[in-house]
Amino acid sequence: MTLAEMNNLAELNTPAKMDTLTEALTPQGADAAAGSESRKVNWFKRPVESEIIVEGLVSYGNYKIFASAYNEKLYTAGIEYDRHSWGHFLGSQMDYVAEFLPFVLLDKPLVTDIWGNPLFYKSTAREHVPGVGISPIGFRWQWRSKKAIKPYLEAKGGVLVFTKKVPSTQATYENFSLQSATGVQVKMSERWGLRLGLFSDFHFSDAFIVPVNPGLDVMNANLGLSYHFGK
Q1: What is the DSSP secondary structure assignment for residue 2, as one 8-state letter?
Q2: CATH top-level class for 50-229?
């Protein structure tokens, strides 16, 4: 190939290269790149579905499973936060759950033995012991999450603090709590829903922080009003 032919070949190839470079620098090319980056940022900033539930709990009986005390009742009121953070499991929506109970009231016999059992032969009087609770660790399985009737199972773990040692004078002010519950959540609108807790178990005990660990297990009904964030 002669020198002239080589120069002609170079001239033919140069415009194609320049055209490619020009297209990359045009507003259209810049807009496409910016759009791609914008989509990446928006993907990470997508709102996560969550809800706040204002709830109340009333116990209607107790039994001895992991605790010894009986003839006591528990009443609570507070706020639960549910966040759809964990995808799906066994066909259900898997949510993180946390709860704060500014109102906790324990109805118990005034006189008990060290295990929390009532000593009615000494006194039949009863007392009400107030407290507060927090459960920072929990989960909820919710089925049919896009339907009007949504069954759920949930569990929560945390701490209860009372104004005196319960359920006996040999226990502690602070007790570890564990809740498990089942029920349905009814959709009233796109934002509002009604929780109907059909059955729940509420356990608390001191986990042998002191030599005596009486504890209490109560059966409960739960009612709540939920507000849904996100889509």
Answers
A1: -
A2: mainly beta
d(CA 76, CA 221): 11
Task: List the structure tokens of 57.
Answer: 């709990």
Q: Which H or E element spans position 169?
A: none
Contacts of 145 (CB under 8 A, 6+ apart): 92, 93
Tell me which amino acid residue 137 is: I
Cβ neighbours around 77 below 10 Å, total: 15
- Among 202, 214, 210, 226, which Cα is nearest to 75's? 202
For residues 171 and 180, the answer to whether their CB atoms sit within 8 Å is no
Tell me how far apart the alpha carbons of residues 128 and 132 are, in angstroms, rounded to a whole number.
13
pTM value is 0.76
Amino acid residing at 211: P
Q: Is the peptide bond before 118 cis (omega within 30 degrees of 0)?
A: no
> Which mean pLDDT values do the consecutive 10-residue runs of the chain (231 residues) have?
56 50 50 51 63 95 85 96 88 94 96 91 93 96 92 96 94 95 94 93 93 92 92 64
